Every structure is written in structure tokens, then in C-alpha cells.
Prior knowledge:
alpha+beta; 12 helices; Butyryl-CoA Dehydrogenase, subunit A, domain 2; Butyryl-Coa Dehydrogenase, subunit A, domain 1; 17% strand; Butyryl-CoA Dehydrogenase, subunit A, domain 3; four-stranded mixed beta sheet; four-stranded antiparallel beta sheet
Amino acid sequence: MDVELSDEQAAFAAAIRDFCARTCGTPEQRRRLTGDHAELHSHEVYAQLADLGWLGVGIEEAHGGAGGGMVEACVFLEETAHGLLPINGYLTTLIVARTVQRFGSPEQQDAVLGRIAAGAVQAIAMTEPDAGSDVGALTTAAVRTDAGFVINGEKVFCSNAHICSHVLVVCRTTRGERKHDGLSMLFVPADHPGMDVRRIDTLGGRETSAVAFTDVEVGPDAVLGAVDGGWTQLMAGLDGERLIIAAAMLGLGRRAFDDALAYVKERRQFGRPIGSFQVLQHRLADLATELAAARLLTYAVARQVDAEPAVRRTRESSMAKLYVTEAARRTALAGMQMLGGYGYASEYDMERLVRQALVATIYGGTSEIQRSIIARSYGL
Length: 380
């Protein structure tokens, strides 16, 4: 279902679709760009996007960006995901960018946002071995020194840490009465002495890492925002993260639907296309309706964010993240079922779409956490 885009936004979406078709429109192109699907991020493609100015779509022109808002960012995320463009590093980069835009000093905004628009990938380290959904229980510590801070601790499931220029580390700078007190955000260069990045093998490839910090020294200018103010900053950042994930999974869900639809129109069994059987027709009708609703919800929240950037949209972003990722998961799994054995074969894109859709209901806050957030917003 179409959403109301301006002529400029619609032209931007069309340009992205054309780029995706030319760059990774064939299975052979996708295999080459991803090392036979071993990697989810292509530096080659990312550099081309930087040259086009598209990586700065949500960044102010004063910092090297295109001056767009969240709607434009959602257009970019949706269309690149639908086009299977291998730029997995952009999701965490955009999350960091929006946090810097809101809480960074002018110097940090110039440096970090400029790097992002020019093609640098950013990562954010929150989760720890014993602190996942309960982020406030994290123990990675940054101890004050005369020269700044010394960081010690371990993070896990840090997406894109292996390809980033900097990691934004959420750590404890003060031990307060409440577990949410005393958290801060510190930028650490990826090649910094004492930081060890170890990639984690997962069902979906190796896009995430464990990151260990051993006596990592950073200066006071590494702090993003306020010292001990990290919890408020993190919560505001998670609102944006959930909408970003929703937009990307909207594109992925649409791609799974389109691939399944094309397959059932061509695949013949019992003397006719399998799409002529009512059971598949009704299943596709339900999925199409879900995706249409998901698209309307995603862009409605994006417009709210653009209209009032300083207002937190916790309930709405959690609704978008919950609904869209679950819809994408159902669509991808249904697509695999419709393709039968081919849906499970790595030769087809559907197998990878299923893996990416499944994990999207976990990272950025599980679907269960989103439901709890939404319920709390109603006083429950």
C-alpha cells in the first residue's frame, strides 16, 4: 500500500530501487558482493552510497548530510532492505547518528556525523553476558582518572563492531542507589589498544561480535552527552532504534512476500500453478494486508518524529517494532513454506530472509519486551 510521499521522497525511493537493481539485482551479483553470502556488509557498495550522498540522508547539511528526516531515512531503509543491498552496517550507524544529533557536542556532531556521511560505520555496545533485556544491570565500568576514563568489561552481540570506525560503549561511571543511575556513553576507536573484538558465529552469519575492554583509556572528550546521564540518552536512542529496525524489516517482509508471490505464480503442481489453490491465495492475502498495515504504521510514527523531534515516541516506536518484525517473521516463514524445499536451500534468498526476520524479533528489544513497554505506557 502506498503511503503519502512527497515528489522528492518518491523520486528518492525510485532512485534507490534502480540502484539496487543495477548493483545487486541478480543472484550472481549478491553472491559476489557478500563473499557467497558469508558477509552482510559490502564496503564496495557502502562507498558508492557515500559518494551519492545517501548515507547522510538523515543528517543535517551542516554536518555533511542531505538534511532529510526520519521519513527519508525510513524510505532508504525500506528500499535497500527490499533490494537486498548488503549494507548491514547502516542500521547501527544510523542509531548512533541519531543519538549524536540529539546529545552530542557541536564538536562531536561535526566529527562523528561527518564520518558517517563519508562512509564510516559505527557500532553501539550495550548487551553483556549477564545483562541483555535488563540493560540497567550492566557491569562494564569506566573509572575516572586525571586523563579521562579507563574502561574494563565485556560486551556481547555488538553488531558491526568488526567493521566500524568507533564503538559507542554504554558503561557504568558511577554506582548509584538505582541500577539505572550512573551510566554513561563513551566513544572508543575500533583499533584502540586494549579492545578485543571477537566475531560470533550465528544462524545468520557473522555480523555480530563479543568485545572485551581491558584497561582501555579514553579522554574526557570521548563522553557523549552527560556523564552519568546515559540511561536517559539510551532510552531516547532506543526509541529511534526500534523505528529504524521496523523500517528495515518492512522492506525485508515486502521482499519475502514478492519472492513468494512470484514463485507461486510460476510453480506448477497437480497440473496448475500452486498460486491457484485457495489455501495459498488466502495466506498471501493475509500477509499482504499485514504488510500494508505495517507500512502505514511505520511511516505514521516517522512523521510524528519529524514533526516533533524533541518528543519521545516510546509507545509508538515499540508498536512499530513489534508489529513490523512479527509481520516480517510470519511472511518469511510462510514464504519458506510456499517454496517448499527450495525455501530451505541456500541457493534461494528466502532462506536468508527467514534468518534475518527471526533475529529481528530479538535484537533492539525482544517482542516480549516491546509488549511490556506498550503495556506500561497504558499504566499497567
